[in-house]
User: What shape does this take?
Amino acid sequence: MQSLIGTGVALVTPFKGDFSIDVEALTRIVNFCVDGGIEYLVVLGTTAENATLDQEEKELVIATVVAANKGRLPLVLGVGGNDTRKIVAELKTRDFSDFEAILSVSPFYNKPTQEGIYQHFKAVSEASPIPVIIYNVPGRTSSNMLPKTVLRLANDFDNIVAIKEAAGDLVQAMQIIKDKPENFLVISGDDMIALPIVLAGGAGVISVIGQGFPKEFSEMIRLGLNRKVNEAYKLHYMLADSIDMIFEQGNPAGIKQVFDALGIADAFVRLPLVGVDESLANRIAEFIDNIAK
Assistant: This one.
């Protein structure tokens, strides 16, 4: 899918001081990403703090992003969890007319076997009316979707079109790239190794930092896709410290602090997450000041 090549960003959900959703700030973030050259937007991914959003709030986030986007960029919706039946039920009842694909995380906490992961995504594939991006993030799920399982799914189900690979393992990503079907996309889920994965044959990234520095990060990925390696790595190393900083005290506390420093959205996160400390906030602000010079 050409619409999934390049830089997608996993949008945050900005909150006001009373921890209600800040619709105006979310609209500003969408426009900031569009104006900065991002290729597509991911709604209700992990970075959106969807674990602490109730159903009404999730619908508000979706409606806000759709309205703000105005059809300018392709949209991907996060539809995942660890109860296969609930996911299948949502896939069969939700209106996906505004979305190009879903992003569905490998089941967390249950710690399924590789066969369990396969059967889960088989059910997701069969229920989904639109293409599916499977999502491997063992740091959060406590189970690693192995290349053999990914390739089995990619070969068996035509509407499983991509993987967001966030194991932090370049070798694992390369194993999938080497043996994948021609049109199956390997998308980095790790900002720090997004460029190496692209240069190894990946299709791009679903990024966290990309929404904070959309112009620079999306240009880095485009340069990588065009094999302009030196220019791409110049941007990579310019941004590398910011990538470390935004994950230093947890996601999305770090990227929300970037938005706070940029004056786009406040940095509030919902418990059990907490905001970054003063030292990190100051370092993020200093980084942004230096980028602007």
